[in-house]
Amino acid sequence: MLKGDVVFLLDVDNTLLNNDQFAADLGTRLEQDFGAAQRDRYWRIFNELRLEMGRADYLAALQNFRSGLEGNAALLRISEFLLEYPFIQRLYPFAIQVLSHLKSLGKTVIFSDGDIVFQPRKIQRSGISQAVDSQVLIYLHKDKMVDQMQQLYPAAHYVMIDDKSSILATMKQSMGQKLTSVWVRQGHYAREASASTVPPNPDRVIDHIDDLLKYNLNYFLMGQN
Fold first, then answer.
1. How far does the chain reach from its first CA to its final CA, in angstroms?
2. Residue 122 binned pLDDT confidence (cut-offs 50, 70, 90)
3. In what side-by-side order are the strands of the sheet with 204-206?
4. Is the preceding omega at residue 200 within 30 degrees of 0, hence cis?
5. d(CA 62, CA 45)
6. What CATH number has the domain spanning 3-18+91-221?
7. What local confidence, expressed as pLDDT, does residue 138 receive?
8. pLDDT per residue over 47-80, tens digit each?
């Protein structure tokens, strides 16, 4: 199979970028500006919205969090904190080099869940968008948009790299042998899933995103481990 026949699809949060550390930083800032009780209230709102919508939405949680705090100047500061957060400092080591390496093997596309404001800003401010020549897809539920993704980026074979084994399993069920699923065991989702991976099992399992620098195209096209 030739380079032009393969599309690499990469998740962002806890795959290329340490989103757990960003969340920890946000929690620290909330406590500094509002106190521990209000910090905990933000995370309750955040988790309720995540259960309701099936995705993380930091800005929507902040919008609800402001209720009862109108006129508090710290709201403007936490808004600025979110929008100006230096995501480039939260990239995993060698993440940009990994993108460059994959681009040498095939077309490389960001395939992410997220809202339409904060997630694009995160991808842009981290340098990820530039690294993939602005080839970025962001959906509310990307695993339900596999058909559209293939229409936008037609290829003989796809490689999906993600920290969520459940998303990899769903995509594998949909695409079959046309997809090689690569599970990166980084972040809290991977730790929580380590004991009960959703079938089918990932085709490839790595511990860190920079492990991919060791492999050529054949690694992504051969049969399962």
1. 19
2. very high
3. 136-139, 107-113, 6-10, 157-162, 179-184, 204-206
4. yes
5. 8
6. 3.40.50.1000
7. 97
8. 999 999 888 899 999 999 999 998 899 999 999 9
Cα 136 to Cα 128: distance, rounded to the nearest angstrom: 9
At 2 the pLDDT is 59
Phi, psi dihedral angles at 185 (to 5 degrees): -85, 65
CATH topology of domain 20-87: GTP Cyclohydrolase I; Chain A, domain 1 (1.10.286)
Q: Please give the Cα distance from 137 to 152 (Å, whole number).
A: 10
Paired tokens of 189? 């989702």
Domain ranges of the chain: 3-18+91-221, 20-87
Rounded Cα distance between 78 and 26, Å, is: 8
Q: For residue 190, what pLDDT band results from cuts at 50, 70 and 90?
A: confident
